[in-house]
Amino acid sequence: MKPSIGDFRRMAILDALEIMDSSPEKIYDDITALAASICHSEISLITLLDNKRQFFKSHHKLDFNETPIEASFCQYLIKEDIDRLIIEDTKKDSRFLDNPFVCNHPNISFYAGVSLTWSNGTRLGSLCVMDKHPKKLNCQQVKGLETLAQQVIHLLELRKAKKEVERQNEELEKIMNSSLDIICTVDRDGTFLSVNSACKKIWGYSPKELIGKNYMDFVYKEDRQRTKKSSEATFSGKKTLNFENRYLHKDGSLVSVMWSANWDNQDGIMYCIARDITEKKKIEHQLKHSEQRFRSLVQEGSDLIAILDEAANYKYVSPTSTKILQIKPEEFIGTNAFDYIHPDDQASVYNSFKEILEKSQINIDPFRFKNKNEEWRWIETIATNQMDEPSLNGIVANSRDVTERILYLKAIEEQNVKLKEIAWTQSHIFRAPVARLMGLIELIKDNGLSFQEKDEILNFIIRSANEIDDIIKNIVDNSVYKTDLKDLK
User: Is the pTM of this model over 0.70?
Assistant: First the structure.
């Protein structure tokens, strides 16, 4: 099939990234490991497609790194121009019935992929998870997969920016006395003696506007003290390399500059080269921000992530333990998980923990866990056996505090008991006076009764009605007391 315009765009972007057949990188491997954990799937991949093959930038729990494009699951995201593709059972989907990776190793039965979409709308590949068994993902897992896919795009964009900066630097280094750098001379008083034309581009001032002026007048006020100390060191004979400060551009914006300077005592002149590093700083900030966002997914979320050895001793605990249990991560290291579990829950948790040594993953029902304040918190856990993963070599426990949910359910159960008591009262106590009242009403219908007899029956009816009224009042009072909303807290 003849390549489309979209195919040419995709291959052009991949060529610019120089990423096809590139070596594994930990930050991408961390993303696929996290995707597999979030979706409780065995396999996770970051795939990139050219016109012939599918390359895996990261392949979690898969022992090869590329496939022919004809066998690719992710090709349908590009062909059908969709943001995500979820196949709960590949054996029920006609597109995958004859796929070699469904029929043979690794016997894929479940696939969920999210498109890796470039800023111009070009689809490069996918972040996907796979499993040997059919399964479903909940909304939260799909959202997590989409968030991680966006993180991959951010990393690729930063890779592209970094490549561009590297190429620029290589070109600059090939040109002596590059016109992109400011080359200037300054006397001991800090007065510009000469400045090349690059200052117009970098600072917005022409050489004539700077010569005869003191350089300190253009330094950003917060950087002046540092700049003064650096200049004094240079004047004393120390060579200045890679000193950074900020200058005020003519339009009022800030320009980050890296200086190299040398004082010539014989001439009484400081020779300087200044390079604009504003974009470099911007990229560094973007990289730092991207790393912080990725770290927040793992270390600052609402779940507690721990790695335990086969005896349930803690090897690693995420920083979220401080927020969830008021216990610092380092306080857990070397201690045993069962030291924190309620005695009444230890047997059931122990039986579950033994299962994980034989299985890949288990869900442990909510159990009570002691926090720093000696309070019992209800915790539910998903445990994954990663004993064979060299980087982990342990049991990964992903835990969440569900105390409020458990207490709420218990309160509901107590309310049901109370409501049943009320229902019993209504059905047994209320029935007798009602039956009596109905019998008296039937008697009074008898026209053969004397006035006195009817009067007596009427008095009985009034007493029965009052009795019913008293019962109703007691039921209402008892209901208000027993269904107090405070019991639900």
Answer: no
